Amino acid sequence: xxxSIDGEDQPAGQKIVKEIRLRSLPKRAVEASxxxxxxxxxxxxxxxxxxxxFIYFAIVLGCLLSLPKITNGASAIAFFTVVLLFVxxxxxxxxxxxxxxxxxSAARIGELPPVGTTASASPESLTIFGESYPWSxxxxxxxxxxxxxxxxxxxxEVDRMRLLGKDGKSxxxxxxxxxxxxxxxxxxxxRLWPQIQPAVNGAAA
Length: 205
Hints:
5-stranded antiparallel beta sheet; about 200 residues; elongated; alpha+beta; 2 domains; PH-domain like; 5-stranded mixed beta sheet
């Protein structure tokens, strides 16, 4: 099983020490369909704004709450210098993530099924290309994790998975490359985690 983080392959047999978080298993069956590059990019940028928008809001709120505590010019200069440095760092990471997406999106979208291909997932099986595969009959060929960050912590979440059916068909499922791709990935990651866990713990692929 090939393991990668933000598109960078990890050495085979190396334990992933970073915390891995699985989102909750969807309670209902998931209906998804593959997207074109423009729609996938829109989904990605929207997810970034949820993350960075919250940070920007927190910065503005923190500034407003701190203003009454600034009592002289020196403290004001120090305060706004720190704020500007912090904002600059956040803007850098925001722009960096968008740049990375643009650099990799063509290859990433190129690995997906044709636009409009439908996929449905339930706790029992995955259906794609008109074929239904019980989870127990699917092999995980590759997993790509996305590195997520908060103010004090960082962790990994499943971003993409390449799966192989017993009939020899191989296909990619992708968080941003499908409508409802987040729920599709959540279902697959939870159901196939018993296969993935030994690999991220350093077991031979």
